[in-house]
Amino acid sequence: MWEYTDKVKEHFLNPRNVGEVEDANAVAEVGSMACGDALKLTFKVDENGKITDAKFQTFGCASAIASASALTEMLKGKTIEEAEKITNQDIADYLGGLPKEKMHCSVLGREALEEAIANYKGEPRKEQEGNIVCECFGVTDLEIERAVMENNLATVEDVTNYTKAGGGCESCHEKIQEIISRVRDEAKPVTPPKLSNIQKIKMIEETIEREIRPSLKHDGGDIELIDVIGNRVLLATRGTCAICKASQQTLKNFVETKLRELVWPDLVVEEVVQ
Amino acid sequence: MKTIYLDNNATTQVAPEVLEASLPYVHDLYGNPSSAHSFGGQVSRRMKEARERVAALLGATPEEIIFTSCGTESDNTAIMSALATERGKRHVVTSRVEHPAIKSLCEHLSNQDYLVTEIPVDGEGNLDMERYEKSLTPDTAIVSLMWANNETGVLFPVEKAAEMAKERSILFHTDAVQAVGKIPVDMKKNTIDMLSLSGHKLHAPKGIGVLYVRQGTKFSPFLIGGHQEKGRRGGTENTAGIIALGKACELAAINMEIENTRVKQIRDKLENEICSKIPNSKINGNPLNRLPNTTNISFEFVEGEAILLMMDELGICASSGSACTSGSLQPSHVLRAMGVPFTMSHGSIRFSLSIYNTQEEIDFVIEKMPPIIEKLRNMSPYWKTGEQVRMSL
Fold it and tell me: pTM of the full predicted structure?
């Protein structure tokens, strides 16, 4: 059985805005019966560009219904410009998260939203762009590239969870892997010019202060920069971090990632007791 | 909230008599049946009794019973033994609708230079016997066909298929996990060489299975270790499980008639009433050749996981062949093999009953299903106020 959040269950059992907006000026139909989920989204945009009403019809599982219900709630009262910024992750976040195998339900919501906005603007319905990679679910290379980029996906399994690509006969797994490698390679930051040691330490300090410390403080934790030797960043944990069992993970997954992203890609974080 | 358990093909409740019989062997009588002392010896005697009871249910001799840990182990042991003893033969015949215990193993074998033929089924889940006959070759090491399908309950003519294999000196195994205890099985009256069963499908606990191996069949053990099970399956015996299974088999023989009368009757009522009350619903599988406890019903234009979760809110347990339920993205391989269209297969629900289900429970489910399906259909873009809209399917 899936571990759904209470919010997903609640939106599934008491879905908001089921049906069709009668005088809708934005309409979209995405998905198909063969794929196992389909969504029809309709909404009404007033003369000021504000969404006044939004409704949905969904064929699909609990998380597909909950994602569509959430999307309609998020849309109401927003301007088209604001609605355009909604991502699939926003839909999942609104529901307190989705099981990773069910992320494609939020992607379906985002696809419907895009198509509906295009419909409102009077843009022609987008022809299938790119080349089909997954024959079973009709997913193109462009769709996979986008999912990898937007959600920072790293494995074929991730791609299947988000786009369904590769979830059928599995014969396209190699192609999906190639796309992941290509996109992630391109996404790598350009190597910054060489830093002097002093510059490096200064940047690490600034990054900790600006990007890292506020998040840690939020949970009552803190870190202190002890030393920098080459690319080794020596840190000591303070506050709740010092007694938290997950602090190692925080250091590696959060602190190190941030420092690599913002200072230097080869930095390695090490914890020292001091 | 009361639980209404209609998922007995997944697992069953342990019968109170079974629990009572086996409990002493979990704590007080913990001796090892292989020990020389009488403290262990008394367990060995009760195990012998249990073996006789299992053999009696199958019409077998006690020597033909090998205790294993589960149905999957029994299935794996049977196939791997055949491949080891039929040296040089590299062909396996099975069906498209087998349980993963056989299906995944066969996929694994086909990646290892074995040739696997999967016999198709028709729209009602019946085995294509013509294709089956043609598939048997001098290179065939073993045939493995399930007796009863876990999803639809459809029965395969395994006794006839076993004879056809016998005529060609090919070993025959059947996964009878869903059949044993629900329909009569008499190994004296057929030529099946090996048969798998699983305790927790017939009111014994999980963790105990049996592989029946006909006397005179060449055998190669899967788990190699001690002398247990006459060297055919190493590993200290699950004594409490074995004694539980013995009791469960004894009860199954007694309850077989109820299973085929009262249980069948309430199953029939359940499916007839649901199908007459809910438009665009249909039974999957040959209705005249099925287990007495199973029904698989498709509700067009709705999705199975959503149905199950709404049933769950009312305490009703069943299962679905929909993609979303399993975590895979495609609906059940059984329904796909039967050619059930996507509009139907995504919304399939399996109800599987046991002797512990009551008329009242069935009436409750009959009352609750129509509003659940209606609520979901009202949300579905493929359905409009009672008539389906065939948009781009």
Answer: 0.81
Query: Bridge partners of B302?
Result: none
Distance CA B375, CA B268 (A): 25
Residue A259 lies in a domain: yes
Residues B319 and B203 in one domain: no
SS3 call for A91: helix
Which residues 22-81 in chain B show a CB within 8 A of chain A? none
Round the CA-based radius of gyration of chain B to a whole number and report it: 22
- Sequence letter at residue B194: M
Residue A35 annotated among the catalytic residues of the structure: yes
Nearest CA in chain B to A34: B342
Neighbour-count burial of B126, counting CB atoms closer than 10 A to its CB (0-12 exposed, 13-18 middle, 19+ buried): middle
CB contact under 8 A, B381 and A40: yes
Specify the CATH number for the domain of residue A254.
3.30.300.130
Domain boundary among A169, A187, A205: A187
Residues A61, B180: Cα–Cα separation, whole Å: 34
Residues A110, A88 contacting (CB under 8 angstroms) = yes
Q: From first to last of the 393 residues of chain B, give the pLDDT tens digit.
A: 899 999 999 999 999 999 999 999 999 999 999 999 999 999 999 999 999 999 999 999 999 999 999 999 999 999 999 999 999 999 999 999 999 999 999 999 999 989 999 999 999 999 999 999 999 999 999 999 999 999 999 999 999 999 999 999 999 999 999 999 999 999 999 999 999 999 999 999 999 999 999 999 999 999 999 999 999 999 999 999 999 999 999 999 999 999 999 999 999 999 999 999 999 999 999 999 999 999 999 999 999 999 999 999 999 999 998 776 666 678 899 999 999 998 888 999 999 999 999 999 999 999 999 999 999 999 998 886 445 444 433
B357 with B214, same domain? Answer: no
* Tokens, residue A15: 């879905």
Domain that holds residue B283: 4-10+256-388
Interface of B with A in 189-228 (CB under 8 A): none
In a domain, B217, yes or no: yes
User: Is residue B305 in a domain?
Assistant: yes
Residue B393 lies in a domain: no
Residue B170 lies in a domain: yes
> Is A107 part of any domain?
yes
Do the chains contact at B329 and A39, CB–CB below 8 Å?
Answer: no
DSSP states of B185-218: --GGGS---EEEEEGGGTTSPSS-EEEEE-TT--
CA distances from B205 to B18, B25, B67, B229, B273 (A): 9, 13, 14, 20, 33
Is the interface score ipTM higher than 0.90?
no
Q: Please give the tally of structural domains in chain B.
A: 2
- Is residue A39 assigned to a domain? yes
Q: Mark out the alpha helices in A122-171 (DSSP H runs).
A: 141-151, 156-163
